[in-house]
Design brief:
Blueprint (H helix, E strand, L loop, with lengths): L10 E10 L2 E11 L4 E5 L6 H8 L7 E6 L2 E2 L2 E3 L5 E3 L2 H8 L2 E4 L11 H11 L5 H14 L15 H13 L5 E5 L7 H16 L3 E5 L3 H7 L2 E6 L2 E6 L1 H6 L4 H12 L9
Parallel strand pairs: 3-10, 3-11, 8-9, 9-10
Antiparallel strand pairs: 1-2, 1-4, 4-5, 6-7, 11-12
Helix pairs in contact: 3-4, 3-5, 4-5, 5-6
Main location: membrane
GO molecular function: ABC-type amino acid transporter activity; ATP binding; ATP hydrolysis activity
Organism: Pseudolabrys taiwanensis
Length: 270
């Protein structure tokens, strides 16, 4: 059933809890994302950032709370008896199609060309005619600056190029929201800028984005809102420039102080 109050927001998270055994990873997270908004999620390793992203499309089933995509609950649904159960896979997969996700690892098929990687899901999941899928794929590859690489294989590309193929592949499904999980963490420093530039372009085009990142300059300059997580909770949230110049919580201050002591730059995004 659609929650009409939340239908105008692409993502709404309410009181989300997630544990691995006795380890509570998410502790009552609540967050809503506006259409066209770029939300950067930052925080120390182990704070629950990546788990939160994976709960949004129910790659990681959560224990309690709910996630709404355009007002529709994903993952768990209410039964007539008042209990909650996992939704049918057909419904779950239909909702997942509206959520693009890109990980640290590119997860490209090494035996397929760039073009074949990008058209794989539109053809086999959406059922698009191959010719239409190819047109869509070429459009997305152009958007990420990879025109002319359609017939290359992943092993012939740099890490930054492979990550941009992964972004094009997600965009080819025409998602309503894009999730980015530390997409530059596995890249050599000289390749980070080209991926961040692609993400900046998507932001400028109005794509709704939730970005888990260690790239503080990107969070400051491109995001509309910064969420600082620690210990499975949202500790502080607000305007990026205000957060980086005047953090309010002691844990936020300590986190930023550590970054500065390690020589992290929060001034200029790629």
């Amino acid at each position: 059933m659609t929650d009409t109050k939340s239908a105008d927001k692409p993502v709404v998270i309410r009181r989300l809890w997630k544990s691995y055994g006795n380890n509570e990873v998410l502790k009552g997270i609540s967050l809503s994302v506006e259409r066209g908004e770029v939300v950067a999620i930052i925080g120390p390793s182990g704070s629950g950032k990546s788990t939160l992203l994976q709960c949004i499309n129910f790659m990681e089933p959560f224990d309690d709370g709910e996630v709404l995509i355009d007002g529709r609950p994903i993952g768990l649904i209410q039964t007539p008896g008042g209990t909650r159960t996992r939704m049918p896979e057909k419904e779950l997969n239909a909702l997942r199609r509206e959520i693009g996700i890109v990980f640290q690892q590119y997860n490209l098929f090494p035996h397929l060309t760039v073009l074949a990687n990008v058209i794989e899901a539109p053809v086999h999941v959406l059922g698009l005619p191959r010719a239409e899928a190819i047109l869509r794929a070429r459009e997305q590859l152009k958007k990420v600056g990879l025109t002319g690489k359609e017939n290359a294989y992943p092993g012939e590309l740099s890490g930054g190029q492979q990550q941009r193929v992964a972004i094009a592949r997600a965009l080819a499904m025409q998602p309503k929201v894009m999730l980015f999980d530390e997409v530059t963490s596995a890249l050599d420093p000289e390749l980070v800028g080209e991926v961040l530039a692609t993400m900046r372009k998507l932001a400028e085009e109005g794509m709704t984005m939730i970005v888990v990142t260690h790239e503080m300059a990107f969070a400051r300059d491109v995001a509309d809102r910064v969420i600082f997580m620690d210990g499975g909770m949202i500790v502080e949230a607000g305007d990026p420039k205000e957060f980086f110049s005047n953090p309010q919580h002691e844990r936020s201050k300590a986190f930023l102080k550590r970054l500065l002591s390690n020589g992290e730059d929060t001034k200029d995004a790629a």
